Task: inverse folding
């Protein structure tokens, strides 16, 4: 048997067969490359479509994520840090609010933040800082400002817009915040200090509380045009009256929106006690009349209002103040006078006191405790001969008695039991309760003082309906509002008391109940200062506000803003205090020059024009004059906005812009489930279980981090895989599958050629 020599495999294949194998391998490699290129192209396209979106496993996610339309992907929300500096000089405060909008993500975003300011704030300055450039804001008619902002936003330019939602609620929109970028927006405003007897105070509100929207919609008007054949058109509701409701963060997710705050105080008289009821402060004094302070914790979350109170060291503070400012060809004046209480107090008339208490869901927790304690205190202060009734409301309403009853033991005991059993729940349908309280069966009775005491947080959105009810049906009643909680709707509370010719008192903690309610009842029990008139120098055209001067109560100053061509001559104020005649004369060319007095006058005039329109029920009656005054004095109002635009485009063409509202904290002491319902609360709680503690968020947002540091956010638990990760994984699996297929194909080719060799 002969054996043939063994030949190499390559030599065993014919040349044509080897060429065919090579061509097949080349063609297969080209096919695989084309497939991979197509897959990579799709991946890049998908990543471009989801630019700025992250999965929960992304290290740059931070602690605030919004859901997107892409499954498993989220939008990193802009963060916000706020710095507040307040300068107080005498009865005037100038405040600068600096907001840092921080984008921790990789996409371009537009941030929108709803924030509160004092209801008497005259907002006149907007600055936007981009890099080393400062862009000054311009005042424009509201629609024009909105149009300019949107055009700049769509063109990729950085822009900021300040709009007024209510006199104490504003919206700051900031467009085109780049990846890992911080844009600084600064606003400034002027306000007058509140004085009540020997106490001076200012408030800086930090959070817009959720507002209840009544179930019944406002009526719309039907317009029948001539020749319409009987068909009419329903006129849409004025969108300017809408109130944007910011998303509210669940408390379990931790606190956000950190605030640092400092105050310089020059009282103009020797200072006594300086306190803050709701925040710890670090205070340092500079001589007898000046002091400076800051938050003891440096940074706090924006979840409750800041209040500062100071008193004179001496027995009595100065009773008069006069400040002037020359603007153009006119002088503007601010006059403050505190009338004496009078040495002789006439006998106080008996009262008919109607107490209204809010027990809706927003009042749950400490607010309900404060309201109940305040009302029990008020019941204890009733005297023999007084009449009273108690009304409670949430989304329903109950009157304790069909009508006011004598304030004796049995009725008072029943009222106390009624109050103690109240629990907070449900919506805030305030209008029916106000209507019931103002319903006066004995409106011609002059033997009693009829007083309505309203205890609420004012968390409503239909303020106009309430103002209209008060001004239309006040009669002989006087409305005294008591704001309850850490973030009351001070605009509604103050304006309702003004329309009701009463006063506004705020109670923010249980420790304030006795003191603040005692002060209120001293006013209720003391004769009012009535028939006050202001007579300006003869022959000089003077425009002063408020006009007419309202009734005042014990310890309240007369505050007048006036404009005239030249401050000269004598102002004469007359009235009755405790039944006795009262008169004071003041030379208007005295006092001290102070910037910003003209803006305070303009703000007060706008407030008066708005009030006149509310009383008349014609919301557009004074719109033209409001617009003119706001434009002339560079003020944000219902008809005007401030807009700042960077002319240099920033966002690249084609880069998507994500629009997101910045969430706010739930006001301190509020119960999330009572406000939003158990279903919403359960969903928020499940989301909160995936979120880290709030302290790292505060630390990250308090001082805007450098770009390198901003990359390292807070890692979150991985509960989903993002679309880009899925695409990358798919590419790897396809490459692996292609490699396995190639190996299998080569193996089969090798086996077939080997079988052919053996047959040969």
Result:
């Amino acid at each position: 048997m002969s054996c043939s020599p063994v030949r190499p495999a390559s030599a065993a294949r014919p040349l044509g067969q080897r060429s065919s194998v090579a061509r097949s391998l080349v063609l297969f490699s080209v096919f695989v490359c084309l497939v991979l290129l197509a897959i990579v192209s799709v991946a890049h396209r998908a990543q471009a479509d989801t630019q700025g979106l992250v999965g929960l496993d992304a290290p740059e996610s931070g602690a605030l994520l919004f859901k997107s339309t892409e499954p498993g992907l989220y939008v990193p929300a802009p963060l916000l840090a706020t710095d507040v500096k307040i300068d107080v000089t005498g009865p005037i405060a100038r405040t600068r609010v600096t907001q840092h909008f921080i984008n921790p993500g990789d996409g371009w975003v537009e941030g929108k933040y709803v924030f509160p300011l004092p209801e008497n704030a005259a907002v006149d300055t907007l600055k936007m800082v981009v890099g080393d450039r400062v862009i000054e804001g311009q005042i424009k008619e509201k629609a024009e400002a909105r149009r300019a902002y949107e055009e700049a936003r769509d063109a990729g330019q950085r822009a900021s817009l300040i709009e007024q939602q209510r006199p104490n609620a504003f919206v700051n929109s900031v467009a085109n915040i780049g990846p890992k970028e911080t844009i600084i927006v600064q606003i400034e405003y002027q306000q007058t200090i509140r004085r009540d007897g020997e106490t001076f105070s200012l408030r800086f509100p930090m959070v817009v509380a959720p507002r209840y929207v009544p179930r019944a919609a406002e009526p719309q008007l039907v317009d029948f045009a001539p020749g319409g054949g009987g068909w009419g058109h329903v006129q849409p509701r004025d969108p300017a009256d809408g109130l944007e409701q910011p998303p509210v963060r669940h408390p379990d997710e931790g606190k956000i929106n950190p605030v640092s705050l400092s105050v310089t105080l020059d009282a103009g008289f020797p200072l006594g006690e300086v306190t803050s009821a709701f925040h710890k402060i670090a205070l340092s004094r500079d001589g007898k009349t000046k002091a400076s302070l800051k938050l003891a914790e440096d940074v706090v979350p924006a979840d409750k209002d800041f209040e500062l109170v100071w008193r004179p060291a001496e027995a009595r503070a100065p009773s008069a103040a006069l400040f002037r400012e020359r603007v153009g060809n006119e002088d503007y004046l601010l006059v403050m006078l505190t009338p004496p209480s009078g040495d002789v107090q006439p006998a106080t008339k008996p009262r008919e006191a109607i107490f209204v208490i809010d027990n809706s869901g927003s009042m749950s927790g400490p607010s309900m405790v404060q309201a109940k304690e305040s009302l029990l205190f008020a019941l204890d202060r009733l005297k023999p001969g007084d009449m009273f009734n108690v009304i409670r409301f949430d989304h329903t309403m109950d009157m304790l008695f069909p009508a006011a009853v004598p304030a004796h033991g049995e009725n008072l005991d029943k009222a106390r039991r009624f109050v103690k059993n109240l629990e907070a729940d449900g919506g805030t349908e305030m209008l029916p309760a106000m209507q019931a309280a103002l319903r006066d069966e004995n409106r011609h009775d002059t033997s009693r003082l009829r007083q309505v005491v309203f205890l609420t947080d004012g968390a409503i959105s239909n303020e106009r309906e309430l103002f209209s009810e008060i001004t239309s049906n006040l009669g002989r009643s006087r409305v005294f509002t008591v704001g309850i909680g850490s973030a009351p709707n001070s605009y509604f509370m103050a304006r309702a008391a003004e329309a009701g010719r009463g006063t506004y008192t705020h109670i923010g903690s249980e420790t304030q109940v006795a003191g603040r309610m005692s002060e209120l009842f001293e006013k209720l029990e003391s004769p009012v200062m009535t028939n006050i008139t202001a007579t300006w120098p003869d022959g000089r055209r003077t425009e002063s506000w408020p006009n007419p001067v309202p009734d005042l109560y014990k310890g309240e100053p007369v505050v007048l803003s006036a404009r005239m061509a030249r401050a000269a001559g004598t102002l004469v104020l007359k009235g009755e205090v405790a039944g006795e005649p009262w008169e004071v004369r003041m030379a208007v060319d005295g006092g001290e020059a102070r910037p910003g007095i003209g803006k305070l006058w303009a703000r007060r005039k706008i407030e008066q024009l708005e009030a006149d329109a509310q009383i008349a029920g014609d919301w557009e009656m004074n719109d033209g004059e409001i617009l003119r005054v706001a434009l002339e004095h560079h003020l944000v109002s219902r008809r005007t906005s401030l807009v700042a635009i960077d002319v240099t485009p920033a966002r690249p063409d084609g880069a998507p812009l994500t629009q997101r509202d910045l969430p706010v904290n739930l006001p301190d002491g509020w119960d999330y489930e009572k406000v939003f319902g158990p279903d919403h609360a359960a969903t928020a709680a499940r989301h909160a279980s995936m979120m880290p503690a709030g302290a790292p968020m505060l630390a990250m947002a308090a001082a805007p981090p450098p770009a390198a540091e901003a990359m390292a956010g807070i890692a979150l638990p991985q509960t989903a895989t993002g679309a880009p990760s899925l695409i990358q994984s798919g590419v790897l699996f396809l490459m692996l599958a292609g490699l396995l297929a190639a190996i299998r194909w080569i193996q089969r080719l090798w086996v077939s050629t080997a079988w052919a060799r053996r047959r040969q």
Q: What stands out?
A: Residues 100 and 184 are 5 Å apart (CA to CA). The chain is about 30% helix and 30% strand.
